[in-house]
Amino acid sequence: MRIGILTSGGDCPGLNAVIRGAVLKGTEINGQEFVGFRDGWRGVVNGDIIPLERSDVRGIGKQGGTILGTSRTNPFEGNGGPERIQETLDRLGIDAIMAIGGEGTLAAAKRLTDAGLKIVGVPKTVDNDLDATDYTFGFDTAVEIATEAMDRLRTTGDSHSRCMVAEVMGRHVGWIALHSGMAAGAHAILIPEQKTSLEQIAEWVQSAANRGRAPLVVVAEGFKPDHEDDPHSERGLDAFGRPRLGGIGERLAPMIEDLTGIETRATTLGHIQRGGVPTAYDRVLATRLGMAASDIVQSGSWGQMVALRGTDIVTVGFEEALGKLKTVPQHRYDEAAMLFG
Ligand code: F6P
């Protein structure tokens, strides 16, 4: 069996560990051969492949990014579509595709599988918002990076008696904000799932300042203050037609300063959260998912993806993966909110 691997959508620490896990298990145990598609679905549509043998994945488990490149190409646009892609796969002698990606990638993979293509999936998102898996690799790394940054913001905030606002990723869900904010001892955590008034935020900030603390406010990029319907976006749309987020922290800072009189500064962590080496946890999770993905190709489980349930790697259908977002449940927010202010 000859398998083409692709990484698609936003990158994420751990992608290379998945590729390595799949290639090592596939070549050593399952008798498979691999090639890599360059830049996600673009490589599939254009038949742009690179060799992926054991020697090509040597040492990559600890590398950030993806050795295959990624893009947000839609495989149904341009020269894409199931028939043309199948012709390309036949021409290249590729029997199956292993698609490593988030919601958009897996949705495309499902449509192609429904049309008869042989595809398995590996879920990927730093936001940790796929309901079908308990954790996605990359999330732990993003939380570590964000926590370290917040620890640093706190010391400079303390020196100047300032309020510091840290903006983290999280388009639809606030998992990165919740975990990094709790780890850093934030005085307020603002997430897309919870509408919060400016007055409430100012109250938490003031209360921390009254105790002699330099307030730390953590905000997810997708947060909407209670008087707004859409998340803050000022930079147009991405290739999937989604608003490019980022900037809510910079917007909130002067509002907090106006309401409290406390000098306030904002920092947007942005893509720093997605760069660099994965944590040990993410390397292990990603390696296990890659190995399991090789197994489900071997068993011909097309339209399925690997996922983490508890500490076990399981298999779920694409439709289950796409059905629901994993939002921060009310009790997890309430638990964190007990420590605000
Ligand atoms: O989906 C993951 C994510 O990191 C979101 O939190 C963010 O909105 C988006 O990707 C940004 O992606 P990019 O700027 O790479 O298109």
Automatic annotation (TrEMBL):
Q: Where does substrate bind?
A: 125-127, 162, 169-171, 221, 265, 271-274
Q: Name the InterPro entries on file.
A: ATP_PFK (IPR022953), ATP_PFK_prok-type (IPR012003), Phosphofructokinase_CS (IPR015912), Phosphofructokinase_dom (IPR000023), Phosphofructokinase_III (IPR012829), PKF_sf (IPR035966)
* All copies of domain Phosphofructokinase, residue ranges: 2-296
Keyword Transcription on entry = no
Reactions accelerated catalytically:
beta-D-fructose 6-phosphate + ATP = beta-D-fructose 1,6-bisphosphate + ADP + H(+)
Q: What is its EC number?
A: 2.7.1.11
- UniProt pathway: Carbohydrate degradation; glycolysis; D-glyceraldehyde 3-phosphate and glycerone phosphate from D-glucose: step 3/4
**Annotated residues for binding of Mg(2+):** 103
State the compartments where it is located.
Cytoplasm
Taxonomically, the superkingdom here is: Bacteria
Keyword annotations: ATP-binding, Cytoplasm, Glycolysis, Kinase, Magnesium, Metal-binding, Nucleotide-binding, Transferase
Q: What is its main location?
A: cytoplasm
Which residue positions are annotated as catalytic?
127
Q: Which family does it belong to?
A: Belongs to the phosphofructokinase type A (PFKA) family. Mixed-substrate PFK group III subfamily.
Its subunit composition reads: Homodimer or homotetramer.
Protein name, per record: ATP-dependent 6-phosphofructokinase
- Source organism of this protein record: Herbiconiux daphne
Task: Identify the coding gene.
Answer: pfkA
